[in-house]
Amino acid sequence: MPGVPDISPQETWEALxxxxxxxxxxxxxxxxxxxxxxxxxxxxxxxxxxxxxxxxPSMQVNGAFTEHLRKAGxxxxxxxxxxxxxxxxxxxxxxxxxxAGFPHAxxxxxxxxxxVDTEGxxxxxxxxxxxxxxxxxx
Length: 138
Fold this sequence. Notes:
Pfam families: Rhodanese
Number of helices: 4
Shape: globular
Order of helices and strands: EHEHEEEEHEHEE
Structural class: alpha/beta
Mean pLDDT: 96
Protein name: Rhodanese-like domain-containing protein
Strand order of the largest sheet: 1-8-7-2-4
Distance between the termini: 36 Å
Helix content: 25-40%
InterPro entries: Rhodanese-like_dom, Rhodanese-like_dom_sf, STR4-like
Domain Rhodanese: 18-124
Radius of gyration: 14 Å
CATH superfamily: Rhodanese-like domain
Largest sheet: 5 strands, parallel
């Protein structure tokens, strides 16, 4: 298995806008979706698919994750871009998806908020928000 490639937020956005088979799966928790915000894909005519990789508050891995991908209508032909806060959970989710028969899994590099800056804040250096891509509060 070749592994899950890291794709920049900008390349992800272009794929979502131009490829009807491209889907963004946000694997963060309900709390993150509610309090941090979500990618806004309305300009691409899409919505992010919200499936947590870990369940809040225990942060136990979601044992039904790949089943939820199928229930969301994703197939082996789908190009699935996984995003989390900074790129770690989404990489694990992409690996699980590949192992479950979704060969076109991609990790959005630096996630939604990216790494912390010198002041300890996220969303400024890299990632979806820092790249100036559309997002909204829930």
